[in-house]
Amino acid sequence: MPEIQQFLAATTYAVAGASARTHKYGHKVFIALLGSGRETYPLNPITEEIEGHKAYPKIADLPVVPEALSIITPPEVTRQVIADAIRAGVKHIWMQPGAEHYEASQSAREAGINVIDDGSCILVLLARQS
């Protein structure tokens, strides 16, 4: 199964860089995943709640280990998020355009994680499915 289909077949998701600010991509991705019926958790170290959902500072703080992780953070933050994801056992990572970090991608692949970091945008894909 291609990388994107594997990502979308997961049962639990987290969004690193989820935002309470509705104009931010982190908000749009979080809402799009929720709106598609997926169990999704927001990750944001400075926000307590997003659209009525408790936000968590990092993956280790989540009540479950998400199978899939969408990342909308600056590349230097992405590096730490991916290190945390590897430690937690996340199986799929999708770095949204602008969040990519080459070394972190390589580390995730070496850990056996399905990585999408080719500039594809989950918002475009989810919009096509609705």
Automatic annotation (TrEMBL):
Domain CoA-binding: 7-99
SMART domains referenced in this protein's UniProt entry, alphabetically: CoA_binding
Name of this protein: CoA-binding domain-containing protein
Matching Pfam families: CoA_binding_2
Species lineage: Bacteria, Pseudomonadati, Planctomycetota, Planctomycetia, Pirellulales
Protein origin, superkingdom: Bacteria
TM region(s), chain numbering: none
